[in-house]
Write a structure and sequence with these properties.
- By secondary structure, the chain is of the alpha+beta class.
- Strands 5-4-6-2-1-3-7-8 form an eight-stranded mixed sheet.
- Strand 7, helix 11 and strand 8 form a beta-alpha-beta unit.
- It is globular.
- The chain starts with 26 loop residues before the first helix and ends with a strand.
Length: 272
């Protein structure tokens, strides 16, 4: 794209114009707004609605679509990590690459680490260190395989800088053998505003005529712990980005103490 202020050429990873420093938008959001992406998603969405109608599930799918307009982004972490984040306004939620770069985290040295770097270089070329990952949720519970505390983010804190993706991006790229010679296909990511369209295009086959609203949260989050709709958020998060915490019942006395400390700073719903 060209800078709307000075007409200088803007590269895909740039947040600010290199010539006049104007804010040209979040790179992940600009990528999701490209014509090819939006057109391909619109085709998938239209096909999903047609399939639902043909299966006699049109009303249920429309109800699912409407519920998705109120969906939230959720990050799951351990009680100890959440306690650190909410205890100080100065504490920032760091991405994987920021932690590694700061020497605060070691690479695990696993195949997944390598796959993560490949996937992120495809998804977010030259700005992967700026992306925080979350999951799309209808009930405030995220992918608890990553931690017992679900951090529900405020819509106002992320709506302008968040995008959504079909599934766990590492698994998506691995299954399709994506790389330099096989780039990311269009139609599998969307702006936050269009998150309901993407989730409906993906999950329409899992909704039947008798599916009711109580089943929607489980359909959205998936059964495998990795089959969620992934949320990509550009930039920093802190406790001011948090709406509330949804926590599993503490498993240990230490976790109970941590949860009480978390409650001093943020509203917490404890699941039974």
């Amino acid at each position: 794209m060209d800078c709307p202020r000075c007409s200088s050429q803007i590269r895909g990873n740039e947040r600010n114009c290199p010539s006049c420093a104007s804010d040209v938008g979040f790179p992940n959001v600009r990528a999701a707004k490209e014509y090819e992406e939006k057109s391909a998603l619109a085709k998938r969405y239209k096909k999903a609605l047609e399939n639902a109608s043909g299966r006699g599930c049109g009303e249920a799918v429309v109800a699912f679509l409407e519920a998705l307009t109120s969906s939230v982004a959720v990050i799951c972490r351990s009680p100890s990590k959440v306690k650190e984040l909410v205890s100080s306004a100065n504490e920032l939620y760091n991405t994987f690459y920021q932690l590694v770069g700061a020497g605060a985290r070691r690479l695990e040295g696993t195949e997944m680490d390598l796959q993560r770097r490949i996937a992120d270089s495809i998804m977010f070329p030259y700005y992967e260190e700026q992306i925080c990952f979350a999951t799309l949720s209808l009930d405030g519970v995220g992918a608890t395989v990553y931690g017992d505390c679900s951090i529900v983010l405020k819509d106002i804190a992320i709506s302008e800088r968040a995008t959504v993706f079909e599934e766990n991006s590492v698994l998506f790229c691995e299954k399709r053998g994506l790389g330099a010679a096989n780039p990311l296909p269009p139609g599998y990511r969307a702006t936050w505003e269009d998150r309901a369209m993407l989730a409906t295009a993906k999950l329409e086959p899992r909704i039947g005529p008798a599916t009711n609203a109580a089943e929607f949260p489980a359909i959205l989050i998936g059964k495998t712990g990795q089959d969620f709709v992934e949320v990509h958020i550009f930039g920093a998060l802190n406790r001011g980005s948090i709406e509330r915490i949804v926590a599993r019942k503490p498993k240990t006395p230490a976790d109970r103490i941590l949860l009480e400390e978390i409650k001093r700073h943020k509203a917490v719903e404890v699941l039974q």
